[in-house]
Specification:
Elements: H1 5-15, E1 22-26, E2 38-44, E3 62-68, E4 71-77, H2 82-85, H3 92-100, E5 105-114, E6 124-132, H4 157-169, E7 176-181, H5 190-198, E8 203-205, H6 209-217, E9 221-231, H7 242-251, H8 253-268
Parallel strand pairs: 1-4, 1-5, 5-9, 6-7, 7-8
Antiparallel strand pairs: 2-3, 3-4, 5-8, 6-9
Helix pairs in contact: 1-3, 4-8
This protein binds hypoxanthine.
Length: 270
Amino acid sequence: MSGYGRECADIVRAARPGSYRIGMILGSGLGSLADEVEDAVRIPYSHLTEFPISSVTSHSSELVAGTLAGVPVVILSGRAHYYEGGDPTVMRTPVETLRELGCEILLATNAAGSLREDVAPGNPMLISDHINWSGKNPLIGEEDEKRFLDMSSAYDPDLRAAMTKIAEATGAAVPEGVYMWFSGPSFETPAEIRMAKALGADAVGMSTVPEVIIARFLGMRVAAMSIITNYGAGLQAHALSHDETKSVALKGMDRMKQLVRAFVKEIGND
Ligand code: HPA
């Protein structure tokens, strides 16, 4: 089982020849990071075979190839989610495309709800590990023996250390935490949030985990960062909403952009 990564990579290379170092996936409200890319070529997902168009407002659905801080990067501005069609492999072709274009590193971003009082909305959280609560896996149906994928260091320790150092050098430490994947699209209940906390999660969200599994399967090194947009259900006085997710993500963008640019500069020039 494989997607159309090779075919899509050919389309990207025809528009902008070259090899790329770092691939990024931008989550809700984080799309403006793609505006930072220089010498950029933008390709709508509709021009890329089997690229899923997200139905989520705030996801722009275009691939941006160019340079960031002098490093060749490919940015997927917008992702499709499991909850949009019930397919855990929905991001297989996009991640394969990054790999085919030469990206050895995936930096995934998302919006997430915090379960920790000391990790407040508007702030980034570096993902150290995940809990796959959905029960779904993008490698189901995969026949290659590699499907028995080791996930012990899925979030690359060296990349995490680099990001931590960058965060400290640029103002404020970024906390690390465990991200728990719920299928969505409804938000969690307060009881589910209490369970998530008891099971060792620091944040909850509806994405990223399938992409990380696919990227690891393809041999990529992974770093992932959440922007915390709210406290989990029952931990804040007001109701959760996608409007809040989008608006708080926007407020945290400047710090996120600063961290991502510095990370790309450091890692991409290794
Ligand atoms: N739960 C799930 N996904 C989210 C949340 C949340 O609280 N906030 C942003 N994305």
